Amino acid sequence: MEELHLNVSLLRARIPNLTVAARSAGLRPATVSNLCTGKIPVGRAEVRTLAALASLAGCTMDELIIRGNPLGMLETGIKVLDLLAPLVKGGSIGLVARQNVGQLALLTELMHRFKTMDYATVFWKPAEHTKGIEELFHEAEAVCDTAAETYERILQYAKSRDVILGADRAMVLSGELFDLEEQLKSAGIRPVTTILVDVSGESVDEELPFGPLDTFLRFDAELTTRGLFPAIDPVASTSVMLEGGQLEPLHLSIQQQAKKLMRRYRDLRPLFHFRGEEKLPESERVLFKRGERLEAYLSQPFYIAEPYTRKKAEWIPLRDTLEDVRIILEGGADHVPVKDIHFTGRLMAKA
C-alpha cells in the first residue's frame, strides 16, 4: 500500500503557529502534532481533520498529503549545493559538465564527505576510463564492474546503512540503472541516493541528459577559469526541494533572494567589465558588488584537494551558510574585500 505523509514543511511555511491555528479550527493540537510526527498515520486521520488543515494552509488535499516517501535534504556541508540546489536523500542527482570542469572532483568530494558520515558509498565503474577517476576509486567504499556486483554490494550495505551510488550516464542509456533500481525495489531495499555523471562530457547541451532528476547541477566552465570551485552554475542548477514547501521558510527565502541576485549580477558582468563601473547607476553597482561577493563566498576548498591547494577544507553547516548569505544580501559584507571571501569557509571569520 502506498505510504501517505503530511507535507509538514508546507504546513509550517503557511501556518506560523500551527498549535494555535489548529485549536481555533476546532482541532486537538495533540492530534495535529502526532500527525506531523507520524505517530498517527495519515490513513487513520479523520477526513474533517485533513480538510481543516488544508483550509488553514490554503492548499489542496493533494498538496497537503505526500504520497510515497517524503523528500528529505541530504546536507553536504558544501555551501553552493546546500543553499541553491539541495541534494534529495534517496533521489537522483545529475552532474552536467564538459570534461575537466570538475564533475568527477565533486563526486569524489561527496563520496569522501558521505563516507565520514557513515554512508555506504558505491561507485559503478564505467567502461570508459577518464582523467581523475582514480581518485574516485580511492574515496568510494566499493568499486563495482558489473550491475550484478553493484546489486550485491548495495544489498549487503543497505541492511545497516544508507547507500550513495555513483554511476555514469552510460548506465542510464543502456537501461541497466533502471533494471538495478527495479531489482532493489523488489528486494524491499530503502531508497538509494544516486549521483550521476557523464565522463564523456557529451550531454552538456542536452535538455534531459539523465532523464528525470531530483537535483540538477550544471557546471560553468567560466567559473573554472576564474578559480571559483566548485564551478556550479548558481542560476541554472536546481532541486525539487525548492517546490511544494519542502524547505524551511527561511532557507527558501534566502535561496530565492540569492538566486535573484546572482541572476542580476551575471547580467551586469559584461556591462561592468566592458563599459566600466561609472556607466552603471549606483543601485546597479551595489547589486553587482554584492553579487561578486556572493559568488566568491560560494566557492570552497575541498578535502580531497588539500594536498594540492594547501587550503584547509571545511564542513559549513547549512545554518551558517544561510546566516552568511543573509549578511551578504543585506550589505553587511560590503566592506569586506572580495579576495578575503574567495575560496574560504565562513564569512564571519573575515567580516
Automatic annotation (TrEMBL):
Subcellular localization: Membrane
Q: Where is the signal peptide?
A: none
| Name under which the protein is recorded | ATP synthase A/B type C-terminal domain-containing protein
Please tell me where this protein is predominantly located: membrane
| Pfam families tied to this protein | ATP-synt_VA_C
Q: Which UniProt keywords apply?
A: ATP synthesis, ATP-binding, CF(1), Ion transport, Membrane, Nucleotide-binding, Translocase, Transport
Matching PANTHER family: ATP SYNTHASE, ATP SYNTHASE SUBUNIT BETA, MITOCHONDRIAL
- Provide a Gene Ontology MF annotation, just one: proton-transporting ATP synthase activity, rotational mechanism
Naturally occurring in which organism (per UniProt): Paenibacillus albilobatus
Q: Where are the transmembrane segments?
A: none
